[in-house]
Queue: 2 jobs
Job 1
Amino acid sequence: MLVKSLEKLSCDVLVIGGGGAGLRSAIAAKLGNTDVILTSKTQIGPCSNTNISKAVIAATGWGPVDDDENVHIEDTIRGGRFLNDQAMVAKVAERTHSEITFLKDCGVNFDMHEGMLQVLKILASIGLKIVDGFSDTDRMFTA
Ligand SMILES: Cc1cc2nc3c(=O)[nH]c(=O)nc-3n(C[C@H](O)[C@H](O)[C@H](O)COP(=O)(O)OP(=O)(O)OC[C@H]3O[C@@H](n4cnc5c(N)ncnc54)[C@H](O)[C@@H]3O)c2cc1C
């Protein structure tokens, strides 16, 4: 809904920002049966870091079996030069696999290879750090 007049709106959950974080939060709130308003200062979808990042997403469990949460946590903490909030990193790592499933269920088109998600290795990562690349980032959330 585009709001052009200065009417008062009310909601249970107000999400500010139309990038990946905001859109995912809004979906979660809506699935929780709340009345949600999402507001963004730029166009939702194309005008965000989420879009220009090309959505190469670090996620475990889609490639070799020894790629797991601990690999993800270690890579993230090393990549962050040990400045990360490590409890937060562990929390994020817990959900990477299921979030890819969620995005697939939402209709996001991941790059596929022989019927499986395309899995890449990041050069700077230890061991078997795995990422999944989208081929059509600009439509990933607005599809
Ligand atoms: C080139 C590049 C490569 C990257 N590569 C990776 C990668 O390989 N792996 C990885 O995990 N991450 C990567 N990232 C980081 C990742 O893309 C971001 O951390 C993530 O997309 C941030 O999502 P977000 O929703 O928090 O912010 P954004 O996607 O930036 O969304 C913020 C939204 O908030 C809106 N907004 C801002 N201020 C206001 C306001 N005052 N009122 C209303 N709306 C507002 C903006 O318009 C925008 O829509 C990369 C980023 C870039 C730029």
Job 2
Amino acid sequence: MRKELFQLRNLKQSDVKEYINFLLDPDVNIWLEDEVQSIKDFSNIENYLMYGWYRQAIEHEKKFIGVSGLDLVNKKNKVARFFIVIGKKDLWGKGIGSGVIKSIVNYGFKELQLRKINSDFLTPNEAVKIIHEKAGFQHEGFLRKDSYRNNIWIDREIVSIFADELNS
Ligand SMILES: CC(C)(COP(=O)(O)OP(=O)(O)OC[C@H]1O[C@@H](n2cnc3c(N)ncnc32)[C@H](O)[C@@H]1OP(=O)(O)O)[C@@H](O)C(=O)NCCC(=O)NCCS
């Protein structure tokens, strides 16, 4: 029988420390938000993780490897923002991100009754661009020179998806 690439489950308090360790790795955090480039207050990370709108721990072979989820950005318009972080670098490029994004987005439309899901990423992050495109996200535009990394200003790409665009 083929082994599942990943499982999703609710977060546990014990995930927080491991997640913070993932975020302290420059290879993992380089294309994440400016706030996690140098973390000043770990309680902000804990709050984001444990008390966010919709969060799922990602597991591979029963081990915690990352987090994905949705933040409600506009309740009336039923719009949320997607995010994903896989902290185990040796598991990148194996199709886990591609599977997780589809599961989370599908749940957002089917169970959370969202109308639209937005997402954004810094443009050098090729892997995250690919997983969004494969899931069916559409390009909306760029926030030009939005974040400073490795001594240059980097554009941020904005993408979004409606339920009928999801490639499940
Ligand atoms: C971005 C991330 C979620 C992708 O997850 P993943 O499990 O590696 O994704 P997948 O293996 O499903 O797909 C990645 C795709 O990008 C490709 N890829 C990876 N690195 C690449 C690179 N540097 N250049 C071009 N393509 C690349 C892979 O070949 C794969 O393509 P394929 O599906 O055509 O084979 C994961 O790398 C991650 O969590 N990174 C750190 C945190 C982060 O950047 N999060 C997103 C912030 S917006």
